[in-house]
Amino acid sequence: MANLGIKDRPTDKPKLTKLFLNFFRIKAMKRKSFIFSLSPIFSFIFSPIKFITSRIDRGVKVDDGQDRFGKPITLLEGDIFYTKVSTKDSNGDLFIFESTRDKKGGPGLHLHFEQDEWWYILEGEFLFKVGDETFIAKKGDSVFGPRMVPHTFSKISDGIAKMLIGFQPAGKMEEHFISVSEGIYSKLTEEEKRIFRQKNGMQSVGPALTYDKSK
Q1: Among 37-41, 52-56, 191-195, which stretch is predicted with the lowest mean pLDDT?
Q2: Does residue 212 contact residue 104 with C-beta atoms inside 8 Å?
Q3: DSSP states along 118-162
Q4: pLDDT the model gives residue 171
Q5: End-to-end alpha-carbon separation of the chain, Å?
Q6: Of 71, 55, 105, 90, which is closest to residue 177 (Cα–Cα)?
Q7: Predicted local distance difference test score (pLDDT) of residue 35
Q8: What global pTM score does this model have?
Q9: 3-state SS string for 154-177
């Protein structure tokens, strides 16, 4: 029997084709299985992370003279804060409260690293200092204080005075006021107070305002 050359040897092309197809099919299935196993991870990365948000999806009415949670924040300087829009309501975008003050005066000169602050006078008169400018604001007036610009205010009228105060974004201001209300701030040393303010996004840069109406 004569030897057959390579070209003359019989081949089973259908079997070879089937073998190659099965090989690539198995590879594709393994790749698909691997990608499918990663799908929960991709879904987690690229989908909105809803579990860390706290934005409400309903309307909220807060009555006149009432606090959003029925628990006003009382500060040592004689202020009572009635929360109207909580940090939790807007997922940190906004914090609005009504400040009622009987005592004259106000906070020391300070600035916020990331918050704009806005004041709207409801009753009484206040002296404001924002940067190099000063304003006397009364009922119906509003004042805006941009972030990183030193500012302060002082109640200068007799009797009760009220104003709406808003922070945008809210930052940690609501948390800061609650800590002060609970007496945590008053127990700290001066250095600890500085660190506390800094952690809450603010810095003290000067004294409170003084005002003499006779001048």
Answers
A1: 37-41
A2: no
A3: EEEEEES-EEEEETTEEEEE-TT-EEEE-TTS-EEEEE-SSS-EE
A4: 96
A5: 130
A6: 71
A7: 46
A8: 0.73
A9: EECCCCCEEEEEEEECCCCHHHHH
